[in-house]
From TrEMBL:
Protein known as: Carboxylic ester hydrolase
Signal peptide extent: 1-22
Signal keyword on record: yes
Entry keyword set: Calcium, Disulfide bond, Hydrolase, Metal-binding, Serine esterase, Signal
EC number: 3.1.1.-
GO molecular function, one term: metal ion binding
Enzyme class: hydrolase
Native organism: Botryosphaeria dothidea
């Protein structure tokens, strides 16, 4: 993948194509002029186009990866084994955003395995269970930067800060925008991502055959909020803000 659509981008793309790589680039739906922010960054004078900024910063880059890998798999009959990023200046910042904002199920599962390994034997028995989760003082952020082999892809990856954050907030439980505890968290050692064959993890991430992963909403909780609280089964819950989630939980209590 190459960042941007201008002279340098096309130069980088031609080199990759010449070496036999499937190559893609995007302008994130904004100006192809690297310095042309004024053309798209405002909805009106002084009023920032937040959605365009989000697309430019990371969303469009992730979409690009998903679409490109899908096309590659359709054309070649198999997903790409490796993916590379080429970018400078703004492209470098976009690459960091892409890596930081889209943790994989492998990362979250690795953190779960680590907390079990850390606190399993506190009861004197190594049985894969944490008997007293409240006494387990494992810090998920201690895993950030550590490398492990992802069994889903066979590739060495590092645990990111967002993955540790997912584990931490899931264990801590939801907190409202004003700092109030909304509900209890999940116990440390609980399945967070993937499925055990019966139930999906509370922080489940669904990964396609081409390696792209997206967060999934829980069926029971989502169904309650959509059908009972909002009276709208088609309501999109994937882009809720913290304020919106707090409001929904309040409505749920009222219901």
């Amino acid at each position: 993948m190459v960042a941007g659509r201008f002279t340098l981008s096309y130069l980088f793309m031609s080199g990759a194509i010449g070496q036999g790589y499937a190559t893609v680039s995007t302008d994130a739906g904004v100006s192809t002029d690297p310095s042309g922010y004024a053309e798209w960054v405002y909805l009106s004078p002084g009023n920032m186009n937040v959605y365009a900024m989000q697309n430019f910063g990371s969303v469009a880059i992730n979409d690009q990866a998903i679409i490109a890998k899908s096309v590659i798999e359709s054309f070649y009959g198999r997903p790409p084994k490796y993916s590379y990023w080429s970018g400078c200046s703004e492209g470098g910042r976009q690459a960091l955003m892409l890596a930081q904002r889209y943790p994989t199920a492998c990362e979250i599962n690795a953190i779960t395995e680590a907390v079990i390994a850390s606190c399993d034997e506190e009861d004197g028995i190594a049985d894969g269970l944490i008997v007293d989760p409240d006494a387990c003082e494992f810090d998920p952020f201690s895993m950030v930067g550590k490398t492990f082999n992802c069994s889903d892809t066979g590739v060495e990856i590092q645990i990111s800060h967002p993955a540790a954050m997912v584990a931490n907030v899931t264990w801590s439980g939801p907190i409202s925008a004003n700092g109030k505890q909304i509900w209890y968290g999940m116990e440390k050692g609980t399945l967070l991502a993937g499925s055990d064959g019966y139930a999906a993890g509370i922080a489940s991430i669904e990964c396609s055959s081409n390696g792209n992963c997206t967060g999934q909403t829980g069926n029971s909780g989502a169904g309650w909020l959509q059908s009972t609280v909002l009276k709208d089964p088609s309501f999109n819950l994937t882009d809720l803000t913290l304020e919106g989630y707090s409001w929904l939980m309040h409505l749920s209590e009222v219901e």
